[in-house]
Every structure is written in C-alpha cells, then in structure tokens.
C-alpha cells in the first residue's frame, strides 16, 4: 500500500483532474438518462404493452457487453467523450425506467381522480401529484444507474473516454513494470471511493427533496 500512497501523492493533481472528469461524466450522463427515462416512462406507464416494451428494450441494451457497444459506437462517433457518454446514458436507462413505471403505475387511481376533481389539468396532476409521489423511486433508480455508470466508465477508456479508466488501461499496458500495480490499484480505489461519495450525496438529496410522509 506504500507504493499506492506514493503514486497518489506524486500524481495527485492529475488524479484529482481525472476524478473530476469521472464524476462529471457519470453525473451528466445519469441526468440525461433520467430525462429520457422520464419521457419514456410517462408515455408508456398507462399501457401494459408499452410498459413491457420499454422495460424489454432497456433490458436488451443492458445485456450488450460494454466493449461490444463501444465497438459499435466508435465507427459512428469516433474516439473520445461522445461514444463514452452515449454508452453510459444507454446503460443508465433500465433502472430509472423500471422504477418510474412501477412507481407511477402503483399510485392509487382514486387520488388521481380526486386531483382532477379539484380542477387540475393532466399536466398539473402529473407534475404536482404523480411525479412527486414517484420521486423516491426515480431517485433510487438514479442511484443504481450512477453506481453502474461508475464502473462502466472505467471500461470506456477503451474509446478514449474521460476519467480514471485511462489510468487502469495504462497500468494494464505496463504489466511487469514497478508502476503498473500502484497505478491500477490507485484508479480502482478512487473509483470505489467516488462511488461511495456519490451514493452518500444521493441519500442527502433524497432526505432534502422527499417529503417526510414518503420517507417514513
């Protein structure tokens, strides 16, 4: 572990920059995935067939190996950030879509009828009642997607993506050299630490944005 600490202190500026890029790419990708997932979920949750189709398609995407998906995206978008972010967005869809559809579908219809009875429009009911009740489930899906994306982004270094994956790939290319293991361990440890910090932030956001009645 001494060699890992030595490598960390000697390269802390670059490691901090790579860590920032890693978290930034994951957060931006999950936010984009959440917007897409909400649109798909809202459009499909009232139809059993459409809901099943949305869940199935997002499940199929998740079964595609990361290297294979990046290999399909690189000829279209070339190397760099774009194919990495697209892959993260696609992989992040399933947990959010599934949680949102289940949450919206489980809301008591009598509650919706009562809201409509007070004069709320469809959009008002959706925004003020349904999405607020579904928010804890949506946030839970975002947490799962973020943890998933943290690991997948390390593989996206194959497509010259941003983040700590480049450190791990460089270490694999130097197997046998004295710096290979410290580089790989440093990159792996930082990804785990960042994932735990991001998860704690999601818990805090949940506490701040979910009403006490829904938390209990």
Automatic annotation (TrEMBL):
It is a multi-pass membrane protein. Keywords: Membrane, Transmembrane, Transmembrane helix, Transport. This is ABC transporter permease. Residues 19-202 form the ABC transmembrane type-1 domain. InterPro entries: ABC_transp_perm/SBD, MetI-like, MetI-like_sf. SUPFAM superfamilies: MetI-like. Belongs to the binding-protein-dependent transport system permease family. It comes from Williamsia phyllosphaerae. It is found in: Cell membrane; Membrane. The chain crosses the membrane at residues 20-45, 57-79, 85-112, 179-205. Its main location: membrane.
């Amino acid at each position: 572990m001494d060699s890992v600490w030595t490598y960390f202190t000697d390269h802390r500026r670059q490691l901090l920059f790579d860590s920032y890029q890693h978290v930034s790419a994951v957060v931006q990708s999950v936010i984009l995935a959440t917007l897409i997932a909400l649109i798909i979920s809202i459009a499909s949750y009232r139809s059993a067939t459409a809901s099943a189709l949305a869940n199935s398609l997002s499940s199929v995407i998740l079964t595609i190996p990361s290297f294979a998906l990046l290999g399909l995206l690189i000829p279209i978008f070339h190397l760099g950030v774009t194919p990495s972010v697209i892959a993260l967005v696609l992989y992040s869809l399933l947990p959010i879509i599934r949680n949102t559809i289940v949450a919206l579908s489980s809301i008591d219809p009598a509650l919706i009828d009562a809201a409509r009875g007070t004069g709320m429009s469809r959009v008002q009911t959706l925004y003020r009642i349904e999405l607020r009740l579904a928010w804890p489930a949506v946030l839970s899906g975002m947490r799962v997607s973020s943890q998933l994306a943290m690991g997948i982004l390390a593989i996206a270094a194959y497509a010259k993506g941003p983040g700590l994956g480049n450190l791990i790939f460089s270490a694999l290319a130097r197997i046998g050299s004295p710096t290979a293991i410290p580089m790989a361990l440093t990159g792996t440890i930082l990804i785990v630490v960042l994932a735990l910090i991001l998860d704690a932030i999601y818990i805090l956001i949940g506490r701040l944005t979910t009403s006490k009645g829904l938390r209990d």
